[in-house]
Amino acid sequence: MDLNIQDIISVLINPIQEIDDTVDILHYGNSNKTVKKIAVSFMPTHEIIERCAQLDVDLLITHEGLFYSHTDNHIAIENAVAWKKQKLIKESGLAIFRFHDYMHRYQPDPIMQGLLTLLKWDQHVKEHNTYSTVVELPTMSVEQIMTYLKEMLNISYVRFAGDLSTQCTKVGLLVGYRGGISHSIPLFEEEQVDLVIYGEGPEWETPEYVRDAISQGVNRSIIMLGHLESEEAGMRYLAEQLSNQFPDIAVKFMATGSQIKVN
């Protein structure tokens, strides 16, 4: 049986209670179009949209927004770069669905599950919380965990605060922009984790909490992966799930890769 774009969207969002104010919409395309090819990416970059056009992709499912902001405000969409991107999308006929808010409402969060799977930490999960996951690992130092993360995520650097020699067993994980104190401090003080790993967050929040804790003789450490680095594995995981669920549709994961370099 042929499935259209709306059928695919319904499969993604129907298991979750309706969200009134959401960015998860079909930004371009006709929801009645039959789907033969799906692409999945973390970011809907200009380059990825060009690749989708070349491969005759019907539907691109992306996690983050098209135009440089969580919401499509006028500054984000009314500029020369955005206009060229909009022209490319319209000329390609590509349908683009953003899967963000509903995705993060699943338990466990598929973005988190993708990261755990890539790190081979599934068997170490102690508990999934609404915004975080706690794992219990064989004892390693912060430095050893950093080395492991870079190897498994294929990234050249991470940032950290704390003591590299700290021995860690209980670790808290936060994906994306969840590295603020509202999520990190409960992990340290209620869950009693040795280390928190997160994507990104305000630099004046958790890093400064760690600085003051160390000044007071309390051992705290954090590792900051980067937003994309913590979440892209989740979109790869989604592509695998869709491929299994819809064997008659060609599903392709398109890696974005980080645009940020260190000199």
Automatic annotation (TrEMBL):
SUPFAM superfamilies for this protein: NIF3 (NGG1p interacting factor 3)-like (SSF102705)
Record's GO cellular component terms: cytoplasm
One MF annotation (Gene Ontology) recorded for this entry: metal ion binding
InterPro entries (UniProt xref): DUF34/NIF3, DUF34/NIF3_sf
Binding site for a divalent metal cation: 63, 227, 231
Lineage: Bacteria, Bacillati, Bacillota, Bacilli, Bacillales
Keyword Nucleotide-binding part of the UniProt annotation: no
Taxonomy, superkingdom: Bacteria
Assigned protein family: Belongs to the GTP cyclohydrolase I type 2/NIF3 family.
Protein name listed in UniProt: GTP cyclohydrolase 1 type 2 homolog
UniProt keyword annotations, A-Z: Metal-binding
